Prior knowledge:
3 strands; mainly alpha; three-stranded antiparallel β-sheet; about 475 residues; 21 helices
Amino acid sequence: MFFFLRTKKIICSKTRSFQYVIRCFADHTTDLKAKVAAKIPVEQGRIKDFRKQHGNSKVCDVTVDMMYGGMRGIQGLVCETSLLDADEGIRFRGYTIPDCQKLLPRAPCGQEPLPEGLFWLLMTGEIPTKDQVNEVSLQWASRSALPSHVVNLLNNLPTNVHPMSQLAAAANCLSSESKFAKAYTSGVHKSKYWEYVYEDSMDLIGKLPVIAAMIYKNCFKGGAKLGIVDTKKDWSFNFTHLLGFDSPDFTELMRLYLTIHSDHEGGNVSAHTVHLVGSALSDPYISFAAGMNGLAGPLHGLANQEVLVWLEKIKSEVGKDPTEEQLTSFIQKTLKSGQVIPGYGHAVLRKTDPRYTCQKEFAEKHLPKDPLYQLVAKIYKVVPPILKETGKVKNPWPNVDAHSGVLLQYYGMKEMNYYTVLFGVSRALGVLASLIWARALGLPIERPKSVSTDILIQELKAK
Length: 463
């Protein structure tokens, strides 16, 4: 008996030691795919237990206004990667933007977080080490080459085809390279779907800077030659270098921009579209392309250029350096004419968008005397009190679109039609991380029930 107990104790001790070694390996491994693979069965079990216990629990009342009002406020989706808090703004796996700026690894001599670190966080829920981030940078750089048919497509598209249409077209054509589509056709077991979606997603993210840079050069720089992707550099550095911008400050801005625009819950048009199309087991390339078509809409990704158009209107009608009194009069006139103030208000937020705040801090550090930035700063003082006085605006504070275009203009990227492509490159991080997890968790095809107005009226009369 003593021998049995002693043997059992030794075995348990060795088991704990082995588990400790595995845990340490999981904590420090630079292999993101292996890291995710270790987390999937844990998350599958957690969700299975939760659904077993609470599967019939009610979480939301749906009103007629919600049904006709774009489903606003209906809790009908699950998004693991981020949550939009009304007061604190976006949280990536529980971390606020200030948290991410403080905790995520940076480039050597850099001050802003690397998007690679944000992607690791979205995928694992953990703050990565520098080595882990460096490995993601290497992975993306090594996957950056485009197949010849995509290069030919981009080089032969007319320059009057909108940059977002070109981005979606290139993503669709990349479907020919889909590892997931090939694996599905060969009959791979559904438990392996996520692995191939992961590979496609990593390939796509690696190729996006090249695609986006080709679009920029072809549309606005006369087809100028691209630079070369450096496998020793980070994703943002390579992107700005391919675009033809060599300013270290612009590269820093791009690191910040690509990080803060990456994810915004699962219900916005681009994120929801990628999830919806992916739920039909469309490959990541096709799903991403569909999301980009949604992002191209003026009520979604095009909003920042509408802000710039409005700022130019102020400069032309009021002057380049208007007083607060002149701005107040112009804004009140704008509202009385039935127009909105672009860059202000948000469907969920009830305070200043933290994405606006971090860009404002960047501007204060790098371009405090820029006239366009100073105009934006004045507007920030004037607009919220005016919107509050109307009594009709739930959120009188600026959102991310009120500032991002101003920063891009300062560093010489003045082509407003291209800005949404930058947004799309960034948004790939969030929507593809969610898509990988959707396949890992085996989420089904999305198919909500719809009814006609007549049936809805009859149902309400019956009640």
